[in-house]
Amino acid sequence: MQFPAVKSLRRRRTALVTFSVLCAAGALAIIAALLISHSAPAQPVLHLTDEVGDYVADFPRHDGYRTPTADQRTALADGVAEVLDGKLDKARENLSAVGYTVRTARLAGTDRTVAEITEKHRTGHGWGRVYIDLGRRVRWSVQVPHPRSDLHTELIGAGLFTRTPGGIMVLAGAPRDAGKGITADMAHRQDSVFDAICTELVARRVPGIQVHGFADENSPDHDIVLSPGPDEAGTAPARRAAKKLSAAGFAVCRAWSQDCGRLEGTTNVQARTAADHGVPFLHDENSRELRDSARSRDRLVAALGEIARSWMKE
Q1: Would you say 303 and 247 are in contact if contact means Cβ atoms under 8 Å apart?
Q2: What is the 8-class DSSP label of residue 75?
């Protein structure tokens, strides 16, 4: 027989033990949460269209470009190559010598992690940025050689990169008239970081889509002028792209079979390098009316994205 006092004491002990266990469990949960928060900080989110738009909006109109030395061009191209090979720490170490670094982030609206190769601090060199999909082997590129000069082409590039996995975006860092003469015209210079990176991509046999813009009056009957550049043998991807673009409702001038004026990309140096190595290249010129319309840009991105995806299957 147990006395009431003994039963009460046992109940109190049981309650005390239960309370202690709950407190300990709560404390462990808090400690675990703190350890997780310190050991695995939340990955930053990259809203690429906004990021690129802000970056380009800060460009000086007629300044802000310095021609890099051969060593500087090589360092940037090698840094891109190291990121493509998954060697991010090595890339950061080597890129720091030219004032660049590698940041990683989750691309907004996706589950993809991307790398941004960018200056640590604004230098006024105007060498641009690179964005790389880290989730899979890079199989295609979008190149933007004339941001701000060819208005909204940077937004087309950002949209294409965001909506199509497995890519790399090479973005020039100054308007085409930001240097002396044509020194800042990335599509017509080989002594640039932009060209050095695109050449590295050709060496890896990564096809490219280069995005441009033209004034409406220069081809009033067309929304888009499409060309494979100077390589007539490379028209197969261009033909497929033209079909996709036409199906999306665009009036397309096909440079391999029509006279498209001076918008055919035959003097484009990145197109020439790609042609010399048999790597597919699309020179995509877009009217001002198309570029000014967010809806038209979306339709363009969707059509070009189908071409990029086809390269991922090859």
Answers
A1: yes
A2: H
Cα–Cα distance, 247 to 80 (Å, whole number): 35
What pLDDT was estimated at residue 62? 79
Q: Rounded to whole angstroms, how far apart are CA atoms 161 and 26?
A: 45
Give kind and range of the element (H or E) at residue 158: helix 153-163
- Main-chain dihedrals φ then ψ at residue 286, nearest 5 degrees: -125, 140
Per-position DSSP letters for 194-228, written without gaps between them = HHHHHHHHHHTT--EEEEEEE-GGGSTT-SEEEE-
Q: What is the pLDDT of residues 189-233, one digit of tens each?
A: 999 999 999 999 999 999 999 999 999 999 999 999 999 988 776
What is the per-residue pLDDT across 28-61, written as a single tens digit (0 to 9) for each? 555 455 444 455 567 899 999 999 999 999 998 7
Tokens 């909506």 locate to: 163
Q: Which helix (H) or strand (E) holds 252?
A: strand 252-254
Q: Which two tokens stand for residue 124?
A: 């006024």
- CA distance linking residue 26 with residue 169, whole number of Å: 47
Q: How far is CA 177 from the centre of its chain?
A: 23
Minimal CA–CA distance to 59: which of 185, 173, 171, 181? Answer: 173
Helix axes 88-95, 70-84, angle to 10 degrees: 170
Range list of H helices, 235-287: 235-247, 269-276
Give which of 111, 80, 107 is closest to 94, Cα–Cα.
80
Sorted by sequence, the CB contacts under 8 Å of residue 228 that are 6+ apart come out as 234, 235, 237, 238, 255, 256, 271, 275, 280, 281, 282, 283
* Whole-angstrom distance, CA of residue 72 vs CA of residue 237: 33
Structure tokens at 313: 């299957």
Instruction: Read off the pTM.
Output: 0.86
